[in-house]
């Protein structure tokens, strides 16, 4: 077993007014040359047709596939599962856009998506993400109790902001995060504070938050290694503006490409510590 690191196609976007984006093929090549194992495509950033157009880039570069879906209904998930097979994805990350107010209303929706997953033979993981069915940490913890087969893709940055967690994190909140990590079968790389979902990891004022997240990843890796021999996926997902912080001119405050490589290094070190 090993740690397999992925980059996100969405995270390679600049979103800088007046500056054209690099062609998708060039971005695939750059990710391959940087030594990532795979590329994740995001149906929140691409249409289904645009995403299908990347299939040859996977075959050409040999990058492994991964897919994040934003289904707006139960059946809306099915085409994403088909595309995931075409790019060789081991599973689909679900950011579910059906959002009942009550946990009792959420449970049948989650079970229906799991049913579609089983029918199509493509596993799914529910991302811990804002503005979706797992928007709130507390309701997600209740969902985990109600649906034991529900697995997560842990992006804890969303819950640090969602709960406005203070530093140091209170013991009770650390316990909540541990419950999430115990159900996570993949992990995503982004560092947040209580007020900002993505901060420049090289700035000294954010070092304590970077260390916090590295510790969470190590905890998650340790639990993962204890329950399976399969490779583990870590997705570097430093998003473009407005995720990325910018100055008065709209220019980013840091080099996201370099930061993603550093996050990869930190995750790999955490994986090795978890092995020890």
From TrEMBL:
InterPro entries (UniProt xref): Xyl_isomerase-like_sf
Keywords per UniProt: Isomerase
SUPFAM superfamilies found in the cross-reference section: Xylose isomerase-like
Listed GO MF terms: isomerase activity
Source organism superkingdom: Bacteria
Protein name: Sugar phosphate isomerase/epimerase
Biological source species: Paroceanicella profunda
């Amino acid at each position: 077993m090993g740690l397999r690191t992925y980059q996100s196609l969405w995270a390679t976007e600049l979103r800088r007014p007046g500056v054209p984006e690099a062609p998708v093929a060039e971005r695939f090549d750059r990710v391959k040359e940087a030594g990532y194992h795979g590329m994740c495509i995001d149906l929140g950033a691409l249409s289904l047709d645009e995403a299908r157009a990347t299939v040859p880039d996977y075959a050409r570069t040999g990058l492994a596939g991964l897919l994040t879906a934003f289904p707006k209904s139960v059946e809306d998930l099915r085409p994403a599962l088909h595309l995931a097979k075409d790019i060789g994805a081991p599973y689909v990350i679900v950011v579910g856009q059906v959002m009942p107010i009550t946990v009792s209303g959420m449970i049948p929706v989650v079970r229906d998506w799991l049913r579609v997953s089983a029918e199509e033979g493509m596993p799914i993981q529910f991302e811990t993400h804002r503005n979706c069915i797992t928007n709130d940490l507390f309701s997600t913890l209740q969902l985990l109790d109600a649906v034991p087969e529900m697995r997560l893709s842990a992006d804890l940055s969303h819950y640090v902001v969602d709960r406005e967690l203070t530093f140091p994190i209170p013991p009770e909140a650390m316990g909540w995060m541990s419950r999430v990590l115990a159900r996570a079968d993949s992990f995503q790389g982004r560092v947040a504070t209580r007020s900002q979902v993505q901060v420049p990891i090289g700035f000294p004022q954010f070092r304590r938050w970077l260390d916090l997240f590295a510790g969470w990843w190590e905890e998650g890796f340790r639990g993962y290694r204890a329950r399976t021999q399969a490779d583990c996926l870590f997705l570097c997902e430093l998003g473009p503006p407005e995720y990325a912080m910018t100055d008065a001119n709209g220019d980013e405050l840091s080099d996201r490409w370099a930061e993603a490589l550093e996050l990869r290094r930190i995750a790999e070190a955490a994986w090795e510590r978890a092995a020890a």
